[in-house]
Amino acid sequence: xxxxxxxxxxxxxxxxxxxxxxxxxxxxxxxxxxxxxxxxxxxxxxxxxxxxxxxxxxxxxxxxxxxxxxxxxxxxxxxxxxxxxxxxxxxxxxxxxxxxxxxxxxxxxxxxxxxxxxxxxxxxxxxxxxxxxxxxxxxxxxxxxxxxxxxxxxxxxxxxxxxxxxxxxxxxxxxxxxxxxxxxxxxxxxxxxxxxxxxxxxxxxxxxxxxxxxxxxxxxxxxxxxxxxxxxxxxxxxxxxxxxxxxxxxxxx
Length: 253
Hints:
By secondary structure, this protein is of the alpha/beta class. It has a single domain (about 5-245), classed as Spore Coat Polysaccharide Biosynthesis Protein SpsA, Chain A, CATH 3.90.550. It contains 7 helices and 14 strands. The longest helix is centred in the first third of the chain and has 17 residues, at about 65-80.
């Protein structure tokens, strides 16, 4: 069995410049167990030229369909016994989380980075949410069962992050710490944050879940000298994303 998790992402032709930067960052860190799920023929050809494993993923072109397609991939990987890290291509790896930072010390079934406030109903209840743009999944029976419920629920929500956060809340997730170490302001809301990972247990399952500290896996720019992943909020277009990420120093080029 491979000793490192498979790193996966999803991309299409308009986002190939960002995929190129993301991939170069991983390779600089010595990471090469990577798979791209290509949403079009051009992306598959680009991956072949750049010697990165790629699989075709049929896609209708809508964001809602992409979220549901992602979940089907997650479920299949777990069913096949594959441990994986899902990373958006705009989640820029600054350090190797397999060797540095708090993620490498966790053995929970699911390890998530922190989001901002979507879904808002969960944020209002907890003061934080989990982000699906960077998470680590281990193929345990509990993880497989949970993602089957996520797949079913997402047929209604049409969004993986919404389903994951709401299902964990509905399952009675009890987090190891309720009071945050500090808060970050964002769009007239306050995001509760911790210096160390926090962990949850559930009433109805033995699934274990951890959330990584925001200062290591950043959705909002934050001053910290040991950042692991910069996943800053950016505009939707690829060119605007790359310019914004460069402007805020996300790349270590």
